[in-house]
Amino acid sequence: MFLRSSRPYSEKRQANKGSSKRKSRGENMIGVGKIKQYSNVLDKPLSKGKQEVSLSAFAFLFSELVQYNQTQVDNIAELERRLEDAGYAVGARVLELLCHRDKGNRRETRLLGILSFVHSTVWKVLFGKVADSLEKGTEHEDEYMISEKELLVNRFISIPKDMGTFNCGAFVAGIVRGVLDSAGFPAVVTAHFVPVEGQQRPRTTILIKFAEEVLTSFSLIVTLFL
Amino acid sequence: MQFFGGSEISPSPPVPTASGNNAHMMYVFNRNGVCLLYREWNRLLHTLNAQQDHKLMFGLLFSLKSLTAKMDPTNAEKGNLGVPQLSGQGCSFHSFRTNTYKLSFMESPSGIKIILVTHPRTGDLRESLKYIYNLYVEYVVKNPLYAPGTPIRSELFNTSLDQYVRTIA
Amino acid sequence: MCMSHQDSIALKLSLIDSEKKRFPMAAIYSLYIINKSGGLIFYKDYGSAGRMDTNDSLRVASLWHSMHVISQQLSPTTGCSGIELLEADTFDLHCFQSLTGTKFFVVCEPGTQHMESLLKDIYELYTDYVLKNPFYEMEMPIRCELFDINLSQAVQKDRVAMLGR
């Protein structure tokens, strides 16, 4: 029992090392070559810095994260959940940072606002580009999809045949869930491979299914507004 | 009274492109793997004693030959790996190159193997090996005092070989 | 209509020539990757006559591994790193060994150029799509979809380049 509770901690730490490296390195670059020394870390400006990190370094680290988690689980659903949890911690922190940096400490309160924030701002900070598409689900009102032709975390990963529909994008789904959850839009987020016609490789779709209360409060606001 | 035509070596030696001391060593093996001749001109590294060195060289050639015969991509009828093959049977090789040396290899129909180890940037030595084979025929095979299968001890062969090898670029 | 014998031969020859251009001979016959202990971890055939079965390809790989080591022991000077090119009667074999001991070798038509750079490209694909894949176990046979896709693209590109010359 004790061991179990200690696990998520190490996993979160690993995850953090992995995906927030992008920004932490940028921060590490601050002050390099400058004469000005800040006596207090809080005095440092939160500039964007250099927003680049070696893709190989990230790929190896992410690969280790997946391998480590693989040794800790019995089935694929469990592995997916652990990757998602790892991403969740990243997402929560990313929201905090970006609200401070880009939004003047304001948080997005509209549903579509937060979705486009994830689709563009978050994606740009994490992956260096805006996500390929953001769509509304056709069958259900409460479903949205962010699609990516080649998700960065899946760039070098081939899923073995015996793992079925497992997608390492679960980590990214976790990030999205972390951002949405911390912003007050609880949702179930999952990653899926979707075959594309005329393409050898399927694209990855991050499916966001909002919790019931989000939609009701959303429609409440809409009705109030009307 | 005149006997058969002169004793000059029939094909003229291939034209050397540049002079230099490029050759490191040479081996001659017969079909049973007996080392008939080992000449050394410029060998800095000796990892093994002479006998083991010859054995290893013969083993390498034997294995490489069966490897090339097995790998031959143009022939569908390949035997099993490691089965000894008659000389001239199956796909063979004529040279290989490493970063420190180039080994050129020739096998006569009677199973005589001539191996010349040279500088890695030496060109195609197939003609040169043929010429050396010719020297062997002239000075060794035609020598009445030479018993086939015994080590070659011919002063004449050695000097002409040394002389020729010096011209190989 | 009358056509001289020579003309008809010339016509036939030019026909053969154009056929060749449309259906170029496979420049590369096969590709092998062996791990540092001599085990075959990848084998792909690009159209050689009489494709080798699994047992034979495993045997050929381990034989090549030992030949590679022996060739180093027979070097006349120090610093030998094994066979780079083997020229056989009907094919050339180019071998590239990475610093970690993994060997890549291609069997191609005699005299095929630019094989060293192709091997380096393949090595790069291996480091990207095999080593960075969390589901790949080191030193084990390579079964990575992305590696296969990118490899066939690299080989295809090489063939197109051959055609252009």
UniProtKB/TrEMBL annotation, chain A:
Note the Gene3D superfamilies from the entry.
Trafficking protein particle complex subunit 3
- Region entry Disordered: which residue ranges? 1-26
Q: Which biological processes are named by the entry's GO terms? A: endoplasmic reticulum to Golgi vesicle-mediated transport
Domain of life assignment: Eukaryota
Q: Does the keyword Ribonucleoprotein apply?
A: no
SUPFAM superfamilies membership: Ligand-binding domain in the NO signalling and Golgi transport
Cellular component GO terms, alphabetically?
endoplasmic reticulum; TRAPPI protein complex; TRAPPII protein complex; TRAPPIII protein complex
Pfam families per record? TRAPP (PF04051)
Protein localization: Endoplasmic reticulum; Golgi apparatus, cis-Golgi network
Keywords per UniProt: Endoplasmic reticulum, ER-Golgi transport, Golgi apparatus, Transport
Chief place where the protein resides = endoplasmic reticulum
How it assembles, according to the record, is: Part of the multisubunit TRAPP (transport protein particle) complex.
Regarding protein family, the annotation reads:
Belongs to the TRAPP small subunits family. BET3 subfamily.
Please give the name of this protein: Trafficking protein particle complex subunit
Lineage here is: Eukaryota, Viridiplantae, Streptophyta, Embryophyta, Tracheophyta
UniProtKB/TrEMBL annotation, chain B:
Could you tell me the superkingdom of the organism this chain comes from?
Eukaryota
> CDD domains per the record?
TRAPPC1_MUM2
Q: Which GO terms describe its cellular component?
A: endoplasmic reticulum; Golgi apparatus; TRAPP complex
Question: Where does the UniProt annotation locate this protein?
Answer: Endoplasmic reticulum; Golgi apparatus, cis-Golgi network
One short Pfam name that applies is Sybindin
Q: Which InterPro entries match?
A: Longin-like_dom_sf, TRAPPC
GO terms of biological process kind: endoplasmic reticulum to Golgi vesicle-mediated transport
Q: List keywords of the entry alphabetically.
A: Endoplasmic reticulum, ER-Golgi transport, Golgi apparatus, Transport
Task: Indicate the principal place this protein occupies in or around the cell.
Answer: endoplasmic reticulum
For this protein, the record's PANTHER family field holds: TRAFFICKING PROTEIN PARTICLE COMPLEX SUBUNIT, TRAFFICKING PROTEIN PARTICLE COMPLEX SUBUNIT 1
Q: What assembly does the database describe for this protein?
A: Part of the multisubunit transport protein particle (TRAPP) complex.
Similarity field: Belongs to the TRAPP small subunits family. BET5 subfamily.
Q: What is this protein called?
A: Trafficking protein particle complex subunit
Q: What is the lineage of its organism?
A: Eukaryota, Viridiplantae, Streptophyta, Embryophyta, Tracheophyta
Automatic annotation (TrEMBL), chain C:
Q: Which InterPro entries match?
A: Longin-like_dom_sf, TRAPPC
The cross-references to SUPFAM superfamilies, in alphabetical order and at most eight, read: SNARE-like
Q: What is its main location?
A: endoplasmic reticulum
- Extent of the signal sequence: none
The UniProt keywords, alphabetically, are: Endoplasmic reticulum, ER-Golgi transport, Golgi apparatus, Transport
Q: Which GO cellular component terms are attached?
A: endoplasmic reticulum; Golgi apparatus; TRAPP complex
Domain of life, per the record?
Answer: Eukaryota
**Single Gene Ontology BP term?**
endoplasmic reticulum to Golgi vesicle-mediated transport
Q: Which cellular compartments is it found in? A: Endoplasmic reticulum; Golgi apparatus, cis-Golgi network; Golgi apparatus
Q: Per the record, a Pfam family?
A: Sybindin
Q: How does it assemble?
A: Part of the multisubunit transport protein particle (TRAPP) complex.
Member of which family? Belongs to the TRAPP small subunits family. TRAPPC4 subfamily.
The name on file for this protein is Trafficking protein particle complex subunit
What organism is recorded for this protein? Answer: Citrus clementina
